[in-house]
Amino acid sequence: MKTRLVLLLSVALTTVFAQETKTFTVSQNPLFTHRFTADPAALVHDDVFYLYAGEDSGDGKWYNMPNWVVFSSTDMKNWTEHPTPLKVTDFTWAKDNSAWAAQVIERNGKFYWYITTEHASIHGKAIGVAVSDSPTGPFKDAIGKALITNDMTTEYTKISWDDIDPTVWIDDDGQAYLFWGNTQCYYVKLKENMIEMEGEIKPVKLKNFTEAPWIHKRGDWFYLSYASEFPEKIRYAMSKSIHGPWEDKGILNEIAGNSNTNHQSIVEYKGDWYFVYHNGGVNTDGGSFHRSVCIDYLFYNRDKSLKRIQMTTEGVDKIK
Ligand code: FUB
Q: Which amino acid residue places its CA nearest to atom 8 of ligand 1?
């Protein structure tokens, strides 16, 4: 009872936006227990591991999330929490508390943060983009309007929440791509300025796709991992081309503890591969709408396919 009160109080206090940089050591999964964090997106830049997430600080009944957060580490044990870098209210065209899944990427010294939120005047979810000169922000709306809105994709599905969960990839030839979706996965080329689409939105064919696409590449193989079915497992597909076809490779991660969603991100850092995801594992108020980020290792088979993730309580080791 005492622990529950302390946690409730600490979460209530920390839903006030973080104003200062704080550093702390974590030695378990979930990583952070002082605030709920969901939909992790990792970025490695200049030898630093940046972890972006949505703050899952609603009433525990829906995905009501007012802002995004950013943490950084150079050894995967000592983490710095930076002041709140981006809020839904930073997008004048956005409607409410939907700081949903997002990803940051660097290009030409600028950091672009592709985000999901609810559009105020075009029915449904939408994707926006914010920009900053620093990976920790502050970020500001890069175009003053949404990049993708629900009315652009009605050809494929009539639901209003299919334009969510952007993931961005810049290929070796410099061409950038944005993938996203719920129920139907989509992709489109981005212009070099990263804030305009180039060409048409195309569907991506994937087995049992729910949401949360994430692209990574190792050698000459592209990997497209994504949340599948509901409650969500993470599946993945492989291709030699970013344009597909994508060959289904099965389940990568099982249902995450105490959470309907699972939302992964995959990056290589200092020689190891990391699988970053969320569960509802913070005692005692964790759950599907009070989620928390976890990190475990990702390993490859000799044939380049992925080994199934082993979710752990201990998390990953400190990098020496
Ligand atoms: O956090 C809100 C939504 O839940 C995300 O956009 C989805 O990926 C799922 O995790």
A: 212
Other Cβ atoms closer than 10 A to 136: 20
Nearest atom in ligand 1 to the alpha carbon of residue 54 is 1
pLDDT tens-digit profile of 148-167?
999 999 999 999 999 999 99
164 Cα nearest atom in ligand 1: 6
Listed residue (170, 155, 161, 110) closest to 135, CA to CA: 110
b/e per residue, 25-61, with b = 16+ CB within 10 A? ebeebbbbbebbbbbbbbbeeeeebbbbbbbbbbebe
d(CA 56, ligand 1 centre) in Å: 10
Strand partners of residue 217:
222
Give the Å distance between the CA of 94 and the centre of ligand 1.
Answer: 17
- Find the 214 Cα to ligand 1 centroid distance in Å: 13
Rg (CA), the chain: 18
* Residue 214 pLDDT: 99
In whole angstroms, what is the distance from residue 156 CA to residue 41 CA?
26
pLDDT tens sequence across 291-308: 999 999 999 999 999 999
62-118: pLDDT as tens digits: 999 999 999 999 999 999 999 999 999 999 999 989 999 999 999 999 999 999 999
Determine the Cα–Cα distance for residues 296 and 275; give it in Å rounded to an integer.
Answer: 5
Closest ligand 1 atom to the C-alpha of 101?
6
For the whole prediction, is pTM greater than 0.85? Answer: yes
DSSP sequence for 238-282: EESSTT-PPEEEEEEE-PPTT-S----EEEEETTEEEEEEEES-S
